[in-house]
Amino acid sequence: MAAERYSFPVDVHHSSPNGMRMNRMLRMSRRDVLLAGMGAAVVSVTAHAAEPPEASAPGVADAAQFLTLSLRLTDRETLSPAIGNALYARIVQAVPERKEQISRLHALLQQKHFESAQALAKAAEQADPVFKDVIHDIMTGWYRGVAAQKVVVYRSALMFDITKDAVYPKTYATGGPFYWTSKPPEVPLPTGEPGLSPSKFVVEPT
């Protein structure tokens, strides 16, 4: 193997001390470059192998079950599959047993044709009290955009959709100047009955 050759500046002996140090830094051989590259590759592979595996994306069937349940529980004909996937992934990541519970709740939905969210909620809580918490997680995700105390979606949360004719989300101003001085439209009082039993009131930090 031919000896490696270095190219020295012609005035190296007349260089300043700083210049000489710079010349030595620039005279890195090809072997040093190769060894440094191999070392970096080994470190990268080792670090990647030591990383914990990321949570896998929800399966197509699991996501479809979650969306079907969500449509019935919100009494809506359409919902965003992308938001549904994000909410489902966050819910089962925070509480792994929710995956099996959501699957069982979906099976209950398939066993009988429930005409409303109220009917499904009542039957679900009677079948298994744990379904009450499952339904809470699903509804909190869609209406507040929060799953396991983490904001998954903000502007598209359903709580803004049902009041969009009167109230705008914080940081959004879709009206003209001083639009808030106008009298808001009349909102009819709700007439429905709760589908689940009362829950303990919890004041969340703001």
TrEMBL record:
This enzyme's EC code(s): 1.1.99.4
Top EC class, one word: oxidoreductase
First and last residue of the signal peptide: 1-49
GO terms of molecular function: dehydrogluconate dehydrogenase activity
Cited InterPro entries: FAD-SLDH_ssu, TAT_signal
Taxonomy, superkingdom: Bacteria
Keyword line: Oxidoreductase, Signal
Matching Pfam families: FAD-SLDH (PF12318)
Protein name per its UniProtKB record: 2-Keto-D-gluconate dehydrogenase, membrane-bound, gamma subunit
